[in-house]
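Obj: model holo form, ligand = DOR.
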Amino acid sequence: MTDTITIRRPDDWHVHLRDGDMLERVAPYTARQFARAIIMPNLAPPVTSVEQAAAYRDRIIAAAGPNFTPLMTAYLTDQADPHDLARGLADGVWVAAKLYPAGATTNSASGVTDIANIRPALARMEKIGMPLLVHGEATDPEVDVFDREAMFIDHILTGLIADFPALKIVFEHITTRQAAQFVADAPATVAATITPQHLHLSRNALFDGGLRPHAYCLPVLKREEHRLAVRAAATSGSPKYFLGTDSAPHARDAKESACGCAGIFNAPFALESYASVFDEEGALDKFEGFAAEHGPRFYGLPLNQGSVTLHRAPNQVPDAIGDLIPFHAGQALGWRLA
Ligand code: DOR
Ligand code: ZN
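Output (holo structure tokens):
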């Protein structure tokens, strides 16, 4: 049995670090585990301009310390300006742009109401090699919440890929068999991130003896068959799948509420959580690719120098970290980051 694994320093290709006090509290957890992270722009107000992103990047560096590189993303709105996207990419501020369908999730009200509105932006991104990151859920309220990802594939994503064949697309936080299969069959321009919660939990976790707000995230957890398909994808060794925690902290009272916020705060034990999945699947040899190689290769960024080591050892996750409830709260993980 393998009791120690050492991998190249990994990155988190999808994280919410928030701002202000919350940023100061959560950024050190991400910086402790990861060299770089793709920073989600869904602040209130959203990060839509190059100047806002540059200022936010400075605040993140101040909170996270010098050993961590935030990779900034533009929040696409109906008014997305192709010229601004190109300028921010050329200036080294933007790394990618995020498509939130309006109303899909937290702070997505300023998101895109109709893909037709961002066609000029997408055409420019395709030309300049700027990746599009998508929250892949249909927003029509008629669509069943558990079907939103599959509907997005049929109604939006398939057309996007046909219309912009050279555009790099990351299908963020995939949760279904359909999404895993779609990405496997798609051209090499299409990849996906996978969260720890969608590897560990099926939707039963939402109702385990009562309503469980700390298991609520978007896209919502799915049936067991989908969890198994996403696990198989993550641990397959395919370069199309890589690590993106979607760590999304909300204060306890905002989660434990009559209308609780979506998001799981998994940053403190993210690598340990993923490692336990790869271990259970007998795929520890595939962990380095998923955590440290597939992402940078897709984005066209250098691989990190240096390494991190995980040991097989009981690792008790606290019940709470201040007013934040971490993923796996109160449980013991079987791996520990050295
Ligand atoms: O669960 C989620 N939380 N999913 C998202 O798409 C957004 C995130 C957040 O910002 O809280
Ligand atoms: Zn997210």
